Amino acid sequence: MRLGGNKSKISAILSETVNDVVIEASFWAKENKETLVSADYVKRAIKEIRYRSSMIRDHILDTVNRGQILIDLEGKKVWSSQFSSYY
């Protein structure tokens, strides 16, 4: 993934990502009644976050492949689904 442009925006994205990992790693440590967050919990947090992200990506790709979301790259139509279109 390429991030360009505003450095403060990139910093905010990275900060949010690190915060998400810290929160999830803390959750897994607490689930296992640990008082410290080890590298194993950080690795698990990253794995779980990636898994959830891929589920969203896979769902979107699946709906496109089934024709429930149509993406017209020509003309003015920018998005269409079986329910509505945006121009």
**Count of helical regions:** 2
Average pLDDT reading:
80
Order of helices and strands: HHEEE
Work out the strand percent.
5-15%
The class by helix and strand makeup works out as mainly alpha
Spatial shape: flat
Q: Roughly how much helix do the residues carry, as a percent range?
A: 55-70%
Oligomer: single chain
Topology diagram in text:
Elements: H1 7-31, H2 39-65, E1 69-70, E2 79-81, E3 85-86
Antiparallel strand pairs: 1-2, 2-3
Helix pairs in contact: 1-2
Overall description:
This protein is mainly alpha-helical. Helix content is 60%, strand content 8%. The chain has helices spanning 7-31, 39-65, and strands at residues 69-70, 79-81, 85-86. A hairpin with a 3-residue loop joins strand 2 (79-81) and strand 3.
